[in-house]
């Protein structure tokens, strides 16, 4: 921080402010403003790293009084770039670390700057876990507020379903608790309504017994087997125990020692599998996936749950140019599989090893919760199509955008009409409405009237107040 920023900015945030302030021109400003998606290049007027909720209140009051837009960031993984802002105040919660696990109550209190890998590390000390992101550098807070589909969701629900309470700094500068005992309406909105209602400085989660060792991993097959393998695996997993969690990915095989040389750089079908329970009992449940035909690579074995959680990390490096979608699907008929494989195989044309076509299987505990129980929408979706374009060369931008658009169009006939906003770029109000549906969006807009009538918290998948 420059001396000028110290003199001018800190007093404006309040005499008691204890955090760090970074302004344009300060040493480290460019690193501090950068987010995970390298396509996003914004310049905040002020970056605030609070030491506690009181500092967050100061930052919120400052933004409101100066009429500046306010963004909130933890892990900065928003593909839409909502973890930063042009000309406004960025509250960088990465300074708020700390996880406290209560193994008897099976709960965890998690501060607003905690990442997925940090949460897993602490809960696994007690053989406990809660649904969280599939990339360990994801911020727990943003993931949860956006709903939160994770590997454990078919068994234990969304991350937001396991959110018991949260401490929130509101638009008028108060610190309130949202739980099922107080401010219940706010808790409903936090469970899937993104950061539209305030800055959450801490969270309380329900935990479940799991690990530290699980049966999990990845099976890889040549792409020419993909359609037949996907048909057979679909038929099996849809009748398998809820403890079996799966996803498929079409990706370019890296030049790793464990992959046969003839597959290096070629599109392959990856089948992720996790058994939520005793690894010894899981062997018989996972075995039919291996018996669909001998996989070219079999990486399914007993491993630490934290290792499985980190398995996708190499495919999600910070700073790549990114463009994604999250499309809810009503099912996986043969026609969907064919379109998925045909468009997914085209990743060979874009020549970016981090570009992937993913299919997550959902349902289970997610769909067993009443749709109006939380703000998170589209619980009836059985699957999610998730095209991930990630590239380095700006000259390939249109090539990647075109692939995602064509993939999305191919999935459209099988879509529920809904989208998962955590995976969506910023493309306007119509897309946000598609994340909730008309009835739920109207309820969220009414809630916005109560908690943020001036739309201070608008750097997000924004829900506008119902009243103009």
Brief write-up:
By secondary structure, this protein is an alpha+beta fold. The protein is 30% helix and 23% strand. The protein is globular.
> In terms of per-residue confidence, which ranges show pLDDT below 50 for 5 or more consecutive residues?
1-7
Helix content: 25-40%
Mean pLDDT: 93
| Rg measurement, Å | 22 Å
Question: Structural class, judged by helices and strands?
Answer: alpha+beta
Strand content: 15-25%
Main β-sheet description: 10 strands, antiparallel
Shape: globular
**Please, how many helices?**
16
**In oligomeric terms, what are we looking at?**
single chain
Number of strands: 21
Distance between the termini: 39 Å
Notes on the structure:
This protein has 468 residues and is of the alpha+beta class. It is built from 16 helices and 21 strands. The chain has helices at residues 3-13, 29-33, 53-66, 116-123, 140-145, 153-156, 184-190, 226-237, 279-290, 305-309, 334-345, 347-350, 365-368, 397-411, 429-434, 438-451, and strands at residues 20-22, 46-49, 70-73, 89-92, 99-102, 107-111, 128-129, 163-169, 175-179, 199-206, 208-209, 213-222, 244-252, 267-275, 297-298, 301-304, 321-324, 327-329, 356-361, 383-391, 415-419. Strands 12, 13, 14, 15, 16, 17, 18, 19, 20 and 21 form a ten-stranded antiparallel beta sheet that branches. Strands 5-6-10-8-9 form a five-stranded antiparallel beta sheet. A four-stranded mixed beta sheet has the order 1-2-4-3. Helix 8 (226-237) crosses helix 11 and helix 11 packs antiparallel against helix 14 (397-411). The two termini are 39 Å apart. 52% of the residues are buried. Residues 1-7 have low confidence and may be disordered.
